[in-house]
Design a protein that fits this description.
Layout: E1 4-9, E2 19-20, E3 23-24, H1 25-42, E4 46-50, H2 57-71, E5 75-79, E6 93-98, H3 102-114, E7 122-128, H4 132-136, E8 141-145, H5 152-159, H6 163-180
Parallel strand pairs: 1-4, 1-5, 5-8, 6-7
Antiparallel strand pairs: 2-3, 6-8
Length: about 180
């Protein structure tokens, strides 16, 4: 199997996902994926970024899964930001994998372990079976949710000079550790 890692931008320009405190999920994902790609390439790991393009959410997810599968990577990672109606009660990082995938779980745990270095709660790796991208990719895939965009203190982390770079570094370290362990 190739040592290519695919990073997927969350959402798209037409549907930027959650927004708050001057940020959108799509803009964050594009920025953090560039940081991750730079770190992975520096570690000797080939990396590609895919973007679902235009269309409705389900078509975008279908396009992403098809793009990822055509590349045949060792893994795929989509970087999101969480959000909730109760902005003060919902906080912390979470890394989601396809329920039942031992490789996906190991990848999620590897990235999740890095989130302990963030100044907010780390909720760990969670298995789910209802997320299209995780269900339709042939390789181990995860979705990261390192903070709640709806939580003012967590979202402020993105505005710090190095906030997105630190998040990218941590995610890249988790991916690199997992890839090198295979």
């Amino acid at each position: 199997m190739s040592k290519i890692v695919v990073l997927s931008n969350a959402h798209c320009k037409e549907d930027p996902g959650a927004s708050g405190f001057g940020f959108t999920e799509y803009a964050y994902s594009c920025q953090v994926n560039e940081v991750i790609k730079t770190k992975l390439v520096g570690a000797g790991i080939d990396c590609r970024i895919v973007d679902g393009g235009k269309g409705n959410a389900s078509a975008t997810l279908k396009q992403k899964a098809e793009l990822i599968n055509a590349i045949n990577p060792v893994c795929a990672v989509e970087n999101h930001l969480n959000a909730a109606a109760n902005a003060t009660a919902s906080y912390g990082s979470e890394t989601i994998h396809w329920q039942g995938s031992s490789a996906g779980k190991a990848l999620a745990e590897s990235v999740s372990r890095q989130f302990k270095y963030l100044p907010f709660k780390e909720k760990g790796a969670t298995g789910r079976s209802d997320l299209y991208l995780l269900r339709k990719t042939k390789c181990p895939a995860i979705i990261t949710e390192p903070l709640f965009l709806s939580h003012e203190l967590e979202s402020k982390y993105l505005s710090y000079k190095r906030g997105i770079e630190v998040l990218g570094q941590l995610i890249a370290e988790g991916i690199t550790s997992w890839v090198n362990s295979r």
